[in-house]
Amino acid sequence: MALNKPQQDPRANGQAPTLQPVLESLDEQAAREAREARIRQLLRGDDDELLGKAYDGRLVRRLGTYLVPYKARLVFAVVLMTISSLLSVAGPAIIGFAIDDGIRAGSWEQLRFWTLVFLVTTIIEWVTNRGRVHIMAYVGTKVVANMRSELFRHLHRLTLNFYSNYSVGRLMSRLIGDVGVLQDFVTWSITGLFRSVFNLGGIVLAMLLLNWQLALVAFAVTPLMFILTNYWRQRVRQAYRATRQRLALINGYLNESISGIRVTKSFTREARNFQHFDDLNRSFFDANVEATRLAALFFPGVDFIGSLATALVVGVGGWLVLGDALTAGTLVAFVLYVERFFDPIRELAQRYNTFQATMAASERIFELLDLEPDLVDAPDAKPLPPVRGEVVFDKVSFAYREGSKDVLHDIDLYAKPGERIALVGETGAGKSTIIRLLARFYDVTDGALLIDGHDVRDVTSDSLRQQLGIVLQDTFLFTGTIADNIRYGRLDATDEEVRDAAQAVGAHDFIIRLPDGYDSEVGENGSNLSVGQRQLVSFARALLADPRILILDEATSSVDTATERIIQVALDRLMQGRTSFVIAHRLSTIVNADQIIVLDHGRIVEQGTHAELLARRGRYYNLYTMQWAQQTQPTL
Known about the structure:
Blueprint: H1 20-44, H2 57-67, H3 71-104, H4 108-157, H5 160-164, H6 168-210, H7 212-219, H8 222-259, H9 261-266, H10 270-322, H11 328-369, E1 391-398, E2 408-415, E3 420-424, H12 431-438, E4 446-451, E5 454-455, H13 461-465, E6 468-471, H14 482-486, H15 495-504, H16 508-512, H17 531-545, E7 549-553, H18 561-575, E8 579-583, H19 587-591, E9 595-600, E10 603-608, H20 610-616, H21 619-628
Parallel strand pairs: 3-8, 3-9, 6-7, 7-8
Antiparallel strand pairs: 1-2, 1-4, 4-5, 9-10
Helix pairs in contact: 3-4, 3-6, 3-11, 4-6, 6-7, 6-11, 7-10, 8-10, 10-11, 15-17, 17-18, 20-21
């Protein structure tokens, strides 16, 4: 840092002293500290925390309900696991018998018999293990598929209020990350846990039955094993959590950087982004080094303790063999058992974090599944019959959250069937909120919203929205063909009807010029199309759905003047005979409205036609003269 370097006195050169180097150094230090603070702040969040209790009976019981349909397979897998474990435990004893009864006794028949027995048990153990893994892989995949489908359906039942407070990244973490943790648990950990415990118990029992004195010698090192395991378990929890959290930060920043690459290049932020990513990457590297250090301590430590136990068994056992108190076959069997004794202990230690992750992932998944939508159909809700399009806002007030400040106040609005209603006002005036209430993305707080005399709270949401056509400012196209996107709101539409809708809004001409016409892939969110082309496709989608009430939320604000001329005629035809609510910045969409509603801070301050409101020289007149009149001026 420049602050630490010796600085030449500027007065020696006749220059005036300057604080610039010091200030630049302080700026760099402040920026670095800010980045580090940001990382610490992000790491303090518990959203990516994958560790919890190693066992939670409530969660385990609930997870068990997803396994009930596959209980027959699970029982069969447990049977196979038991057989394979018994055969695995019997292996060293069989080798001991082959040495004592065959090699030491000089009996070729006994040696051949025990060799054949060992070969058969090995084959059966392999077959049963393979069957167990195959069954549990199937069960784990099915459970995860069912849970992921349940989550997906549940997310579609939740309201927009939920999505306003829950990031897409967190939802993807639930659908992919947490569910993946459960798949690993079901596939490997359920039977793997019992297999490790079963093997450990079987090995201990076999050693005690062979020679309990030598077994105690082998068990003498177990206190060291427990000390090492407990030390590792306590520290590796934090290390693994740190690596996951830092990896989540890297993935999130990568996603944000790639999505916003145009903005980054526009503001020449590459160097700053490089530095921030390097900070995150270095933090992830440090966490990985710590986790690797612990792994390098634990696993070689287990091997060393196993070797120490083997040395004790060989030393004491060899002494017993020389004194004819122990056979050579038993000693060999003991050595093999000692080598296998630490395998289940090592596996159980590794499974500990898996159990913690499973409990934490399960809790978050079930918390999401238990979240009830804050807007549901009434128990006695009835389907909304085909409507004419009469819309009444009767003293409607609305707040997005209970106890928060109202964003709409006593809205009185009456729209006759077929009328065109324009909503104007400054940002935050409440225009989009009125649209959301009309589509019943939210329920009114006070008052009533009626369509053809039906309170929208008394009808099913699906039947209401099926009679609405919505075109938003931020057009969203789904991955697929152009025809698929136009047909999105009416899947039974024919190819001819799709073409007619596209022609009506002026989209047909550009579509047929594409390489595959209507079968052209639009890419992710229409990345292969221009903004204006995406907007035209969205108009065709709305037209094909043939709604009785049309909602245009600044739908023409993203298109150029030439494209607007193309769709303006189509829009007039689309709105003909339909009740239309329009939020627009374009003057041409406003002046022909039957009613212009001027909003300010959630209140209707003016209402009338374009000519009437201009004559009043009030709020609308000011908006018109400041923002829209310039659109009518010729370009010089």
